[in-house]
Amino acid sequence: MSDLRVDLLGQVLPGPVIAASGTFGYGIEYSEILDLGVLGGVSSKGLTLNPKYGNEGERLLETPSGLINSIGLQNPGVRHFIENELPAMRRALAGTGTAILANLGGGCIEDYEEGCELLCATDVDFIELNISCPNVKHGGIAYGVQAESAKEVVGRVRKVCTKPLIVKMSPQAEDIARMAAACVEAGADAVSLVNTFQACAIDLEKRKPVFNNIFAGLSGPAVRPIALRMVWQAVGAVGNAVPVIGLGGIATGEDALQFIMAGATAVQVGTANFADPAACQRITAEMDAWMDKHGVKSLDEIRGCAR
């Protein structure tokens, strides 16, 4: 067998596949379905400082090779997570080495700061900062669209963050390479990308948009080639300065290896978990099988080899 371990900011993960936020619950739900010990990590459901109900109306719509979602970051809030879900996650992952990523969003910088301070007082392994959230104080434009806005929120959070800080980037960024560089300059220890792509769907019978917010997030295999291009650009922008975690439409081991060959340190798997609850374990096994077949002993041998 090949060595699939990954060194992410000094922490050795058992594998290169991390379960993406919002697609794997808190990992607890999957503990009887697959071996959580083969995963590199589990990224929590997206958290906000205070509880959030999420969006009204339709929330999910399948499309060819994809899924459109309008969940609206429904979650119990950071404090509830710390008191309830986090201890259960720790029990489910005890002895595995699988990391816990706390995915944190916010509607204003102050919420990001306070949420981060609370999470840093716990035993989570990484903070994954979701900058796709709308800035409610400045017209609702997501922090992850403009580099200067992202730089501000990352810089402010960096000052209070005592954990390794991963910034999760949006494909809506005006310039993905500039965005990656700005996040690193502001203090990000790593970047993960990409989040969902903005999409729309029309209900022909009702003759109106399916989602109350009109636009929603597209994920799944349909977005993978674009996500791969953006990961390539991000790696080019930050070089060897920080790790890049690639995600977007990964459904097979071969998909994941493309991101590794583009320079990603690790990958995240999201939408595939809905179609196949054991997707993360299967994808890891498929990566291992390909590496064995081609005489590749470790991911370091092929990381960035396509560049």
Mass-distribution shape: globular
Rg measurement, Å = 18 Å
CATH architecture label name: Alpha-Beta Barrel
| CATH class category | Alpha Beta
CATH superfamily: Aldolase class I
**Widest beta sheet: strand line-up:** 3-4-7-8-9-10-15-16
What proportion strand? 15-25%
The biggest beta sheet is recorded as: 8 strands, parallel, barrel
Tell me, rounded to a whole number, the average pLDDT: 95
Structural category: alpha/beta
* Poorly predicted tracts of residues: none
Order of helices and strands: EEEEEEHEHEHEHEEEEEHEHEHH
Task: Count structural domains.
Answer: 1
CATH topology: TIM Barrel
Distance between the termini: 26 Å
Number of strands: 16
Helix content: 25-40%
Please work out how many helical segments DSSP would assign.
8
